[in-house]
Specification:
Helix 1 packs antiparallel against helix 3, helix 6 packs across helix 14 and helix 10 packs across helix 14. This protein has 16 helices and 40 strands. Helices cover about 25% and strands about 35% of the residues. The strands form 8 sheets. Strands 13, 16, 18, 20, 22, 23, 25, 31 and 33 form a 9-stranded mixed beta sheet that branches. The protein has an 8-stranded mixed beta sheet with strand order 5-6-8-7-9-12-10-11. The protein starts with a helix and ends with a strand. It is an alpha+beta fold. Strand 14 and strand 15 form a beta hairpin.
Length: about 725
């Protein structure tokens, strides 16, 4: 009884001492289980060292008392950040930090001073009506060009303003040195750089982590697996909505958001133990940043980097949502141990990070780049480009039709899919180093339609087949239980899915059938839009298996054959799937199936026959999810008219590749023109049109090294022409 009384007195004393304000504490844990327990109690974790078990977290009086009661012995820390924040907010004229008013003035002054390379925009107003400013720096800010995009973001947490100052200084450096510094000039001429210095101006104005609705914006983004974020709601804030809309409208080759509270680079995923599809690239680019920052590189994480979940789990982070929906690398970079340090530390932090920031901008120019156009008109085409060996996709961007994706050294294949066109697969795209680049022009052939339905007026003539247990395939309008499904259905409101009202059934045995006549076709392909979320893969098995999932196969008069997309299925069905035989390859798990994307299956092996295309879905007898959603089913063949065929030959049989790009003085140029009308005129000019080299090529395969040591650094255009006009063009960048 005496012991119980002592605990009550202790808790009351804590409440009286600290009230309801947040304050930092140091806790020690001995296991991941304890870390997870602590994470449920504290307001938020700011830093964690797996090596020492030290956790720096922010708590209030209640959570402090709970930690003490459980024996974690929290030690209150001096809140240096809060003290510095209070001084900066009350004495803006005495510190280097920019408040919202000063930032607004700086943004407009920058655009006025450098109108030829700067434009400004706003993502929208915050809860309290402040604007989230965005600065674009590029050589032609009012034009859409064949350029990769890069996005720097800071201060999603209002009390972490160091990144704001670094991004202001980066803008000043790029604008003031443009035209004088060859490296900076090349970057500005070749990249569309977007800088959002302060994502949470309301929180910054009040010196708090949260927005004006007391929500942590970095726990407020949709989680890839569909669960609630750590903010405990599915409701997104105005700042979150604005950032989601902005990032969805841009196809950035990399996004970086700056935080403070630690010194390291954090890469996806934050929400799950599973490694991201581009895990090797994310690690490579993280090290590319940390290795140029000695303080970061020598920190308590090896090489100064960590996988987000390995550090500590976060549900609802911006980096997970952005990487999930856009598939470009997104890194969260922690710049300083103190969230809001004294401003005297800012020049040193700038010196530590400047080379790293610039290096990431240069890497944005590497990888596989290109444009997708109509083979007849050369007009840009909206398409999805699948990187087969990664298992991810990117969308190209209209009006110019360009796409950009960083890739590591190796030989890669891509598959290009667009509505109304026959899909194109390009193999043997070689990158010799992790910083090499290739530019492609992809000309898609208009397709003849064998079958198409968006299911708005009817069910498309598809049929269901029932077995012993539940047949879940249904046609109609899905219930509004998952906004990311309902709000973005590609073909309208209606579709086919495994239960319109919600989750599929336990022990589902579901079959959907489409009959197609390919008797007069030599080439054909099945294309459709899909979204799926199934019960998670069981990673405890080796190899991993999935209890729930779907597959597609083709039935002819004599046989049935499973068909696969070029990038393959996720894994194999387990013994507990009621519809699909154990070991068969299936679509499985949740994150890889969302958001909406194209699926492609080649049908050449079945041409000359009547076939049935079958979508089979099966589940185990426990644990269900939202299921499989299918829309815009098309079976197509290459365009059949003679005029199309002639243009196809002309467009598809020339290739112009420059490597490396950017390059230092020497660039290898390869021209391939099989069965092409020779000669081809090759012309190298600068962006003003001044010719530096021009000559005729009389060989179908020609490769040479352009030695540009006598000309200045900059952007150069290499074009191939025949007597009918220009047939290919590449932008190449000379950096000295």
């Amino acid at each position: 009884m005496q012991k119980f009384s002592f605990i009550i007195i202790f808790i009351v004393a804590i409440v009286l001492a600290f009230g309801g304000e947040e304050f930092p504490v140091l806790i020690k844990v001995s296991s991941r289980k304890q870390l997870k327990e602590v994470q449920k109690i504290v307001n938020y974790i700011e830093d964690f060292s797996p090596e020492t078990g030290n956790v720096k977290a922010y708590v209030n009086s209640d959570s402090y008392a709970k930690l003490a009661l459980l024996g974690y012995n929290p030690v209150e820390l001096v809140d240096t950040s809060a003290r510095n924040a209070e001084y900066a907010i009350n004495h803006p004229e005495d510190v280097m930090y920019h408040n919202y008013s000063e930032l607004s003035s700086w943004v407009h002054n920058l655009a006025t001073s450098y109108p030829s390379i700067v434009k400004i925009d706003s993502l929208g107003p915050t809860v309290e009506g402040r604007w989230i400013w965005a600065v674009c720096i590029t050589d032609n800010p009012d034009l859409d060009e064949y350029e990769p995009e890069f996005v720097y973001i800071s201060t999603i947490h209002g009390d972490e303003p160091v990144g704001t100052e670094l991004l202001i200084w980066l803008c000043d450096s790029l604008t003031q040195k443009y035209g004088a510094d060859t490296q900076i000039t090349a970057i500005v001429d070749s990249l569309e750089l977007w800088i959002i210095p302060m994502m949470n101006p309301d929180g910054n104005a009040h010196g708090t982590r949260y927005n004006a609705n007391s929500v942590d914006l970095n726990r407020n983004f949709p989680v890839p697996d569909g669960v609630q974020g750590n903010d405990g709601t599915y409701t997104t804030q105005p700042e979150t909505d604005a950032m989601m809309q902005f990032l969805s409208q841009h196809q950035q080759t990399m996004t970086v958001n700056f935080h403070t509270g630690a010194v390291l680079v954090n890469y996806p995923w934050d929400f799950d133990t599973i490694r991201a599809p581009d895990d090797s690239l994310l690690i490579n680019r993280s090290i590319a940043y940390s290795s140029l920052n000695p303080l970061m590189y020598s920190g308590y994480f090896p090489q100064g980097i960590t996988n987000g979940f390995d550090w500590y789990e976060v549900d609802g982070s911006m980096q997970d949502w952005d990487y999930h929906q856009g598939n470009g690398p997104h890194l969260t970079i922690e710049l300083n141990d103190v969230k809001w340090p004294d401003d005297s530390y800012l020049p040193g932090i700038w010196d530590d990070n400047y080379a790293s920031m610039m290096h990431l901008l240069k890497l944005a120019l590497t990888g596989i780049h290109g444009i997708v156009v109509d083979s007849l008109t050369d007009e840009p085409v909206q398409a999805q480009i699948w990187f087969d060996d990664v298992g991810r996709w990117v969308n190209n961007q209209l009006p110019v039709g360009d796409f950009h994706h960083q890739m590591l050294a190796g030989t890669h294949s891509i598959t290009v899919i667009a509505d109304g066109y026959y899909p194109e697969r390009i193999s043997d795209i070689s990158l010799s180093t992790d910083s090499s680049s290739v530019w492609l022009t992809i000309r898609l052939v208009p397709a003849d339609t064998i079958f198409f339905s968006n299911f708005e007026t009817d069910d498309g003539g598809l049929n269901t087949v029932s077995f012993d247990f539940y047949q879940d395939w249904e046609w109609g309008i899905p219930a509004m239980i998952a906004p990311d499904i309902f709000d973005s259905i590609p073909g309208g409101e209606k579709l086919w899915c495994t239960k319109l009202s919600g989750n599929y059934s336990d022990s589902s045995q579901s079959r959907l059938v489409l009959d197609v006549d390919l008797t007069e076709k030599e080439h054909a392909a099945l294309i459709f839009d899909e979204w799926y979320r199934f019960q998670s893969i069981n990673w405890a098995y080796s190899p991993a298996v999935a209890h729930d999932g779907g597959r597609i196969f083709v039935a002819t008069e004599t046989d049935t054959t499973q068909i696969k997309p070029p990038w393959g299925y996720i894994c194999a069905a387990s013994e507990y799937n009621w519809q699909i035989p154990e070991g068969d390859s299936i679509f499985a798990d949740d994150e890889p199936g969302t958001p909406w994307h194209k699926a492609l299956f080649q049908l050449d092996d079945f041409c000359g026959q009547n076939i049935s295309i079958i979508w089979d879905f099966g589940a185990s007898n426990r644990n269900t999810q939202l299921g499989w959603y299918i829309d815009n089913i098309a079976v197509v063949s290459p365009g059949s008219s003679l005029g199309v065929a002639c243009n196809i030959d002309r467009a598809m049989k020339i290739s112009l590749i420059t490597s490396p790009n950017p390059f230092n003085s020497k660039c290898r140029i390869k021209v391939t023109a099989a069965d092409y009308e020779l000669p081809i005129i090759l012309c190298i000019t600068d962006i003003s049109g001044r010719i530096f080299k021009k000559f005729a090529i009389t060989m179908t395969d020609y490769e040479f090294v352009w030695d540009a040591y006598e000309i200045p650094a900059g952007v150069y255009l290499i074009s191939a022409e025949d007597k009918y006009g220009k047939v290919d063009r590449r932008k190449t960048i000379l950096v000295k």
